Amino acid sequence: MPPSLVLLPVLIPLAAAPVALLLSARPRWQAGWAVGAMATSLVSSALLLAHVWRSGPPLVLAMGGWRAPFGIVLVGDLLSAVMVVMAQSVLLAGILYAVGSREKVVAYPTFYPLFLTLAVGLTGAFLTGDLFNLFVFAEVLVFSGAILTANADDPYGTEAALKYVYISLLASAALLLAVGSLYVAYGTLNMADLAARIAASPAGTSDQPLLGVAVALLLVTFMVKSAVFPFHFWQPDFHAAAPTAVSAMLSSVVVKLGVYGFLRMTTLLFPAQRPQIAPLLVALGIVGVVYGGLSAIGTHNAKRMLAYSTLAQIGFILVAIGWGTPLALAAAVIFTVNHSLVKSAMLMLAGFVASRAPVKTAAFAVVQGVGKAMPAAGALFLVGGMALAGIPPTNGFISKMTVFRSGVEAEQWWALLLLGVASIFTLIYVTRAFMRIWWQPPVGFTYAGKTFAADEIKAKPYGDRLLAPALLILAVLALGLWPTPLVDLAMAVSRWLGSPAPYIAAVLGS
Q1: Residue ranges with strand state E in 176-295
Q2: Could you give the CA distance from residue 148 to residue 310 in angstroms, rounded to a whole number?
């Protein structure tokens, strides 16, 4: 398999974005082009994953012919390939949702080009082999998402986008300072070369005083990217105001950039510092599960509820990464993939309901009882809620079961007790949301100065389409009923992460 295969998942959406802009005068052609480009990119990502899973060594592409550590490299190893396939699968579903959406922002000439640029930033961040280009791709991701949100139909879209940009500037500054610290200390930014040099000259030596600073700054960076408590405060406003197709991406796969960063930190870059990093990840993960669950119970908006739910679900992943056993790392990968599918589907369903409400909002006061006219959406929401709560036969059950099994194996009894109690919160808020939207009668409400009586509240006969969330929920059920391929893949990723030497050798060519 040629090394250029690792470039295609980045190159295809990058090349497709300007073409999509040229097609803006023909909206249907533009939408079809975006769907085709994202589907083609996903096929190339799947081929990359199949190759590295089957053959083992990663594909390494030296850009411009300059080999690492002197040039820029793209690295398609088992972890990055899994993350890219996961991300692009959900991104394709997001574009499909946008095609069937009635939001005004979808008709803007720049929507699909920016969506493809979002895919470029996320895919490149997973595949890059050096920290500075991780910063570059992360910035592409941030500004694409911010502009898409600023153009949202919601009047608070601009405010939410500005919050996202400001908090992202904090993460960007932390990442740049970490990059500078590591370059001063080790003279390289290639992750494989850094891993080798850090192992040869770890923290605590007199000539490497900046390593601890870099570790702390990278932790802050990835906490912001994955909305980990206490850097979560931008997320609820942002996802509540963003267009549904965009919020479904940001709360499902974009936050996984931070998860990817934590995995690289603890297994490749700083394994010697892992004993100091791991307790922090476990503590923040447990706090996130508790705080996110309680906040989701108390919120007044379905999209905000799901945003806080992401905070809780990311907490499970952090705890598994903190435990760090082979089974725990596999559990983190399984949870990462499964959560991406179910959370994007749930946000699309919330957007679907809002599109048919008397006023386009996901506020519970407005959508209460509206779901009675949408039984198909209710069935999909029920399955998605079961997956979030970890109830069989969904993929969420496989995710939580694997996390709890890894905790038992690691004998983390107190953490398991807290996670078990906090898991009840998920069942409470998804049941509450389902009951209010699909079972309870409508209530009168006042929105933007206009009052609606209870007997005037009826679902609109038109709205967004259910195709994309239905496909995702089908995947949720399929991975719950037949989890073996994903579990086997996650175990392979865990074994790969447990031995960084082959990654280093493949990238440096030794």
Answers
A1: none
A2: 20
* Residues ≥6 apart with Cβ < 8 Å to 204: none
Sequence-distant (6+) residues with CB within 8 A of 56 are: 502
Helix, strand and coil in the chain, % to nearest 5:
75, 5, 20
Cis geometry, peptide bond prior to residue 230 (ω within 30 degrees of 0): yes
- Alpha carbon separation from 186 to 192, 214, 264, 334 (Å, rounded): 12, 12, 18, 34
Separation of alpha carbons 70 and 93, rounded Å: 38
Token digits of residue 468: 């994309």
Q: Residue 446 pairs with which residues in a beta bridge?
A: 451
Q: Write the secondary structure of 345-411 as one string of H (helix), E (strand) and C (coil).
A: HHHHHHHHHHHHCCCCCCEHHHHCCHHHHCHHHHHHHHHHHHHHHCCCCCHHHHHHHHHHHHHHHHC
Asked if residues 309 and 429 have their Cβ atoms less than 8 Å apart, the reply is: yes
Contact 77, 496 (CB under 8 A): yes
Q: Give the whole-angstrom CA distance, residue 495 versus residue 17.
A: 37
CB atoms closer than 10 angstroms to residue 43 = 14
Distances from the Cα of 498 to the Cα of 326, 369, 439, 487, 493, angstroms: 7, 50, 49, 16, 9
Cα 79 to Cα 270: distance, rounded to the nearest angstrom: 17
Q: Are 249 and 305 in contact (CB under 8 A)?
A: no
Residue 247 has which token pair? Answer: 């919020």
Nearest to 360 by CA among 62, 55, 155, 76: 155
End-to-end CA distance of the chain: give it in Å, rounded: 20
Joined together, the tokens standing for residue 192 give 């494989």
Q: Which two tokens stand for residue 431?
A: 């049941």
For every one of its 510 residues, what pLDDT tens digit does the chain have, with 9 covering 90 and above? 677 889 999 999 999 999 999 998 898 999 999 999 999 999 999 999 999 998 778 999 988 778 878 888 999 999 999 999 999 999 999 999 999 888 888 889 999 999 999 999 999 999 999 999 999 999 999 999 889 888 887 777 788 888 888 888 888 999 999 999 999 888 899 999 999 988 887 655 545 778 889 999 999 999 988 888 888 777 777 777 788 888 888 888 888 999 999 999 999 999 988 999 999 999 999 999 999 999 999 888 888 899 889 888 999 999 999 998 999 999 999 999 999 999 999 999 999 998 888 778 788 888 888 888 888 999 999 999 999 998 999 999 999 999 999 999 988 888 889 888 888 999 999 999 999 999 888 776 666 666 666 666 676 778 889 999 999 999 999 999 999 999 999 999 999 999 898 999 989 885
187 Rama class: left (phi>0) / alpha (psi -120 to 50) / beta: left
CB neighbours of residue 56 within 10 Å: 13
> Bridge partners of 62?
73
